[in-house]
Amino acid sequence: MAGVVAALLFGAAAALRAEPLVNPLTADDDTVKLGRKAWIASGCMACHGNNARGAVGPDLTDDEWLRAYSDEMVFNTIKRGRSGTAMSGFGDTLSDTQIWQLITWLQDENRKRKAGAK
Ligand code: HEC
After folding, report:
1. pLDDT per residue over 4-19, tens digit each?
2. Nearest-CA residue for atom 37 of ligand 1
3. Which value, to the nearest 10 degrees, does the dihedral of the CA atoms of residues 99, 115, 53, 102 take?
4. Which atom of ligand 1 is nearest to the CA of 46?
5. How many helices (H) and strands (E) does the chain have?
């Protein structure tokens, strides 16, 4: 019986894992502003620059990434950090929603940059 329950739980966990995390937020003005606020409040600019265009840490507004890009990769990097690098996790201070807001702001910066607006 315990084996069956364990198998069911494992199956459910595997099913949940099968769906990659995708930014659930819409890039409206409020969300982008909240993301920018979370960026400033968390001190990300100390390493990535005021507008996230890179300093000690990499540029986060272009299409070049150290690891293959996915919303999930960026989310996990911000939430958990990267061991062995200066990039620490912010899961203790930022809620999941704030992390997605932050990502929405970064994606908006990327879009604007491509559009040549800045
Ligand atoms: C103390 C310096 C520091 C701070 C503060 C910092 N980062 Fe980083 N970050 C880094 C470094 C260094 C890397 C590169 C890690 C590596 O080599 O894989 C990085 C990597 C990243 C990446 C992955 C980039 C890629 O190309 O794969 C993301 C996304 C990121 N940081 C977001 C943030 C956000 C958002 C914040 C604020 C909540 C933040 N970082 C704060 C230093 C920092």
Report:
1. 666 655 656 665 567 8
2. 44
3. -10
4. 5
5. 5, 0
Give me 79's structure tokens: 């939430």
Q: Among 106, 42, 31, which Cα is nearest to 71's? A: 106
Low-confidence ranges of the chain (pLDDT < 70): 1-17, 117-118
DSSP-assigned beta bridge partners for residue 81: 88
Angle of helix 96-115 relative to helix 29-42, nearest 10 degrees, comes to 110
Hey, where are the domains in the chain?
21-117
Q: Which two tokens stand for residue 80?
A: 């958990």
Cα(44) to ligand 1 centroid in Å equals 8
The model's pTM is 0.88
Would the CB of 89 count as within 6 Å of ligand 1?
A: no
Spatial separation of the C-alpha atoms in residues 102 and 106, rounded to whole Å: 6
CATH code that applies to domain 21-117: 1.10.760.10
